[in-house]
Write a structure and sequence with these properties.
eight-stranded antiparallel sheet; mainly beta; Lipocalin
Length: 190
């Protein structure tokens, strides 16, 4: 499920570190003014490659995502829940690669214990979107992702609570795993 709101022509600025599952960020409402972003928000340094980002190891399977998006323009938070089969670590890596391909610049990921923090900037419609993200992994089957995006005077905060809820179901028509027969016991001749 992809939610789109937005600026003129700016429909979705993918987040996720990561998780794409994790289409996370969309800044709502028309631009109020053309003020440049603060230097600290607009210039992460030193710049690294998205492929160098340190990512958590999360278990593939059926995941449930509860996303809460808060913007100044909207007021009340928007909440959505989504379940999908996937590999969150791979999806995060793919989302970062796509952002890098679009010219986004990344600061090195900071990893302390079970927390990963990242910042990056992307050019968007004559301005700069500054992103920050904090991913807290509680296990290989659970994490919380808090991200913030700023574009001019607008700010969007997204919180995703993700929990692995099981294995992915087999698709209709897919071959079922074969069970191996028990090993044959030696014959006791008589």
């Amino acid at each position: 499920m992809t939610r789109q709101c937005g600026f003129p022509d700016l429909r979705l600025v993918g987040l996720a570190l990561l998780s794409a599952t994790f289409c996370r960020l969309v800044v709502a409402g028309p631009p109020a003014s053309r003020t440049p972003p603060s230097p600290s928000a607009a210039a992460p340094s030193p710049v690294t490659s998205a492929r160098d980002a340190e990512l958590p190891s999360l278990k593939p399977g059926m995941w449930e995502y509860q996303r809460t998006v808060t913007t100044r323009a909207r007021g009340a938070p928007a909440v959505a829940k989504l379940s999908k089969c996937g590999d969150p670590t791979l999806e995060m890596r793919n989302k970062l690669a796509a952002l890098e391909k679009k010219g986004c610049r990344f600061s090195p990921t900071i990893h302390h214990g079970n927390t990963y923090q990242a910042t990056w900037i992307c050019s968007a419609h004559g301005g700069v979107v500054a992103m920050s993200q904090k991913l807290t992994v509680t296990s290989e089957s659970s994490y919380e992702d808090i991200s913030e995006a700023r574009f001019e005077e607008q700010q969007t905060r997204t919180k995703i609570v993700a929990t692995r809820i099981g294995e992915c179901p087999l698709l209709p028509g897919a071959p079922k795993p074969r069970r191996r027969p028990p090993p044959l016991s030696p014959s006791t001749g008589g």
